[in-house]
């Protein structure tokens, strides 16, 4: 998540981690190229948060806002189909398990895998990702000032090796992967149940090498990156890590085209800050999942009703806004619009800061961990979860209920068992008197100030924040909106000193049983809060090698009980989803319940007119 400390669904391949949840378009005269793509075809899609990083596997960039764009731009070894089966994309490459003891996986790149600058994709790209995600090369960690949020040891960070990433799964690959011709072989230190989604291609190694090491030739630059990793060349790795972590973060189209190369169906051609990003069919792409529509423009609008208005006005053709009863009624009233409503793979939750010097940090109370925990528990007792569900979610889904699991979707096979084990249901009802009693036991006098981070442009989140503020005030908490410095997604990982609680959604990016590891393990990719429990880390170690379903359920139940006992935060509800599109402009839309959601199946998209002419 960025050159601070950490951030917040899936790129072209599946990743074993959760991820954070104007007008245009034109037509020409219908010229068609040899790939069968009509260059007059275009579609406009509304999205709620702007793109800000091409590096979707970094702590800074691991957010749905980035990865839905990257899903269109990057190839990979596998992807999920509409039934959530993991499918190998052999036009990019293949992989096979060559040994169970030790677990050994061999990846082989296809001749058709390449970048849009005519450089072949290859093992160097995956080796670079291993080095970045593994954590073994990092020899320094940014330290943030509690008051300003600025990095206080920037000189040390600049002089050391710091990849802005941390993957518990990739950390299991302790030996340097072996490259042979167009293949790379990775050996795990112990069995790992979700090895198929453990690592994915990400950045072009040759571009990183060119920028970091000053080497112009692409092949030489790529080879230099490989050598630096194999030799553990600290001087070179320091430069490589800095480029990997920082150079691919941007909020508008960079001057250097190498910062937005494509290895997939689409390539970025325009990007206007906070307004839109435009992608065109990648003429260099030789894979199987070619662009169905020549041009895709993603237009940013954080106001759900504004998205509906844009759909009505013809400014956009496909929307997936955060839904309310008013939104559902509005889209259902539009003529010529197809509407689908279903539960999504995203859930709402509140997480609390443990190490930011705020009201939930033991350091605030002389390092008294029990006192800080009581303050956290008191705050969680004020969260009006049932009221939020009743007021904001049941109008869309009458069967909606509080989600009481950090790791399981309501109705899934393991859900009831894990909920029973965790005890999170103790927070189902607001308990103001119980909250007051806990504050009294802790010897903490009110008011207790809590800075709440959420998307200020998201109507539903604003409504939730208001309900939380009113309820918490009854127990002596003064909740104030955190003043966003850049955008809320970036601040989630970078400005951790400035907020005490975060209200947002996690979207599933895979079906991996270890997906939640990145959220709750000490210093893992999505753990922005300083939460650390050795027992939880040990349980995730156990889960990584467990293949028995009953045992997986037991382990996750124990993990969740620790999270509840530690007052990590609370889950609130599963997202009710509304997708709407103009059938005369786009056909073939099949929203996926996990990331990338509405962007899934772009290879089957057609313009409405093209569909009608069949």
From TrEMBL:
Descriptive protein name: ABC transporter family substrate-binding protein
A Pfam short name: SBP_bac_5
Organism: Oerskovia turbata
The keyword Signal is assigned to this record: yes
The organism's place on the tree of life at top rank: Bacteria
Keywords: Signal
GO biological process: peptide transport
Domain Solute-binding protein family, chain residue ranges per copy: 96-510
Keyword rRNA-binding on entry: no
Coiled-coil stretches noted in the UniProt entry, renumbered to this chain: none
Annotated signal sequence range: 1-24
GO molecular function, a single term: peptide transmembrane transporter activity
């Amino acid at each position: 998540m960025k050159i601070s400390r950490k951030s917040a669904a899936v790129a072209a391949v599946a990743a074993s981690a959760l991820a954070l949840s104007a007008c245009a378009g034109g037509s020409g005269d219908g010229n068609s190229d040899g790939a069968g793509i009509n260059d007059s075809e275009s579609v406009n899609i509304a999205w709620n948060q702007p793109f800000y990083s091409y590096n979707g596997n970094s702590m800074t960039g691991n957010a749905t806002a980035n990865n839905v764009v990257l899903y269109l731009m990057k190839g990979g070894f596998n992807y999920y189909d509409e039934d959530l089966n993991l499918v190998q994309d052999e036009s990019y490459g293949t992989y096979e398990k060559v040994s169970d003891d030790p677990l050994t996986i061999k990846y082989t790149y296809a001749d058709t895998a390449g970048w849009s600058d005519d450089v072949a994709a290859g093992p160097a790209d995956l080796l670079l990702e291993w080095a970045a995600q593994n954590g073994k090369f990092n020899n320094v960690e940014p330290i943030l000032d509690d008051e300003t949020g600025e990095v206080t040891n920037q000189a040390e960070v600049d002089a050391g090796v710091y990849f802005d990433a941390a993957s518990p799964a990739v950390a299991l690959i302790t030996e340097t992967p072996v490259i042979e011709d167009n293949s790379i072989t990775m050996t795990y230190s112990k069995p790992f149940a979700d090895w198929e989604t453990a690592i994915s291609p990400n950045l072009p190694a040759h571009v990183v090498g060119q920028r970091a090491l000053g080497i112009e030739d692409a092949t030489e630059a790529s080879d230099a990156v490989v050598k630096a990793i194999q030799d553990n060349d600290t001087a070179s790795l320091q430069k490589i890590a800095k480029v990997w972590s920082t150079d691919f973060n941007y909020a508008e189209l960079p001057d250097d085209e190498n910062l937005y190369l494509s290895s997939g169906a689409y390539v970025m051609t325009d990007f206007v800050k906070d307004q839109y990003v435009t992608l065109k069919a990648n003429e260099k792409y030789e894979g199987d999942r070619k662009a169905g529509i020549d041009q895709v423009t993603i237009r940013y609008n954080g106001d759900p009703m504004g998205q509906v208005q844009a759909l009505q006005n013809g400014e956009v053709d496909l929307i997936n806004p955060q839904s309310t009863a008013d939104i559902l009624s509005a889209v259902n009233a539009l003529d010529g619009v197809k509407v689908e409503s279903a539960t999504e793979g995203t859930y709402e939750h509140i997480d609390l800061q443990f190490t930011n010097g705020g009201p939930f940090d033991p350091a605030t109370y002389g390092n008294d961990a029990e006192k800080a925990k009581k303050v956290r528990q008191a705050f969680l007792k004020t969260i009006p979860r049932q009221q939020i569900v009743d007021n904001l979610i049941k109008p869309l889904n009458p069967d909606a209920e509080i989600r009481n699991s950090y790791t399981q979707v309501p109705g899934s096979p393991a859900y009831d068992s894990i909920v029973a084990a965790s005890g999170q249901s103790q927070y189902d009802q607001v308990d103001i008197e119980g909250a007051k009693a806990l504050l009294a036991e802790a010897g903490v006098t009110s008011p207790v100030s809590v800075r709440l981070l959420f998307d200020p442009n998201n109507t539903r989140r604003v409504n939730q924040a208001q309900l939380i503020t009113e309820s918490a005030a009854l127990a002596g908490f003064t909740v104030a909106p955190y003043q966003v410095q850049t955008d809320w997604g970036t601040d989630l990982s970078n400005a951790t000193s400035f907020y005490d609680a975060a209200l947002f959604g996690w979207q599933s990016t895979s079906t991996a049983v270890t997906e939640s590891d990145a959220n709750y393990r000490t210093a893992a990719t999505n753990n922005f809060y300083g939460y650390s429990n050795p027992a939880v880390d040990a349980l995730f170690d156990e889960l990584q090698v467990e293949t028995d379903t009953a045992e997986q359920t037991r382990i996750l139940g124990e993990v969740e009980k620790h999270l509840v006992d530690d007052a990590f935060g609370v889950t609130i509800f599963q997202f009710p989803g509304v997708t709407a599109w103009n059938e005369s402009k786009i056909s073939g839309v099949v929203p996926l319940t996990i990331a990338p959601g509405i962007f899934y199946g772009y290879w089957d998209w057609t313009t409405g007119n093209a569909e009608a002419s069949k």
